[in-house]
Amino acid sequence: MAASAPPTSELRVAPSILSADFTNLGEAVAQVTPGTDWLHVDVMDGHFVPNLTIGPPVVSSLRAHSALFFDTHLMITEPARYLEPFRDAGANGCTVHVEVGGTAALIAQMRELGLRVGLAANPDTPFEALEPFLDQVDLVLCMTVFPGFGGQSFIADVLPKIARVRAAADAAGSGLDIEVDGGIDERTVVEVVRAGANVFVAGSAVFNRDDPLAAIQEILAAAAGERAGAPS
Ligand code: DX5
Ligand code: ZN
């Protein structure tokens, strides 16, 4: 028996504003705020992914209206150029993609800037690409769709990778946050919790609902139910 059990990471939903009404972002954030302490901000550059979204000015505007932790997902090919502007705009954590390379330097830069450090992997990027950095980051983001657009279908093939990341974190006694992003709702969340994820990005499942707060609570309840029922 292990001397001590690994820390249990907290379950949370990080609503993705990508699916919110961009003409009324302040209201969208206010609607979800009672249900979470994180907000997921999707940044796309038209290079790393075939879509363009928001930059530091929007983060700065949101910061003036929200005390939530801004979980900033950088789907961009040159994160080194933009980490400081996002930090200055009010990002609390930034997540860079391992596929862009230069990961060790990016992690060092994020630490230097005082950002919480996240590392993301696309669905077809293997566990081995993340492995060298697991002891250096606060969060690993396993994409459960190919990034670029909200409203895509969950890719279950990613589940074994999530399980490997959690097993490695447990073996190291670390309370690493494992985040999933793409196609998460009250059904798919059960599968990712079983695999070891604890932070659930949800865009369309939250903001396409008449009651976004109820959607968050349903996802969280499904996750907590699965964890409570799991054999120890
Ligand atoms: C996908 C983004 C996601 C997206 C999730 O490229 O990184 O955060 O908004 O949207 P849903 O929950 O609709 O799959
Ligand atoms: Zn995202």
Question: Describe it for me?
Answer:
The protein is built from nine helices and eight strands. The chain is α/β, with parallel strands linked by helices and 232 residues long. It has one domain: TIM Barrel, CATH 3.20.20. It has an eight-stranded parallel beta sheet. Helix 5 links the parallel strand 5 and strand 6 (139-143). Zinc ion binds next to strand 2.
Keywords, separated by commas or semicolons:
binds D-xylitol-5-phosphate, binds zinc ion, alpha/beta, 8 strands
Give the distinct bound molecules. D-xylitol-5-phosphate, zinc ion
* Spans of at least 5 consecutive residues with low confidence: none
Can you list the strand order of the major beta sheet?
1-8-7-6-5-4-3-2
* Architecture per CATH nomenclature, i.e. the level-2 architecture: Alpha-Beta Barrel
N→C terminal distance? 12 Å
CATH topology: TIM Barrel
Estimated radius of gyration:
16 Å
Our count of helices gives: 9
Mean pLDDT: 96
Going by CATH, the homologous superfamily would be Aldolase class I
> Strand content of the residues, in percent?
15-25%
